[in-house]
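It is worth pausing here to work through a concrete case rather than discussing structure prediction in the abstract. The textbook approach is simple: state the sequence, then state the predicted structure, then interpret. We follow exactly that order.
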Amino acid sequence: MALLDRLVHRPGTGGGATATAAIVWMIAFAIVGYFKTNFSCPRCGELYFRRFDARPWRRNWIFRPWARRCLHCELPKWADG
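Step two, the predicted structure:
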């Protein structure tokens, strides 16, 4: 953002372009993160990186964002399904 500010900022104007670019960047980052964490497995259709542990003493979500296999059917990442 600092480099962008240096490129587009003209003396005597506000920092509107930089602020707009920063806000768009943050919104895009949030949208991509949402879709990445809620990715469905092509084989089983369940969430690839999340699984609910239903054991009576646990009862919570297991979330592994860097999992190499589906947490449900163990389909390897980048497999054809």
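Step three, interpretation. The mean pLDDT is 84. Residues 16-37 form the longest helix (22 residues).
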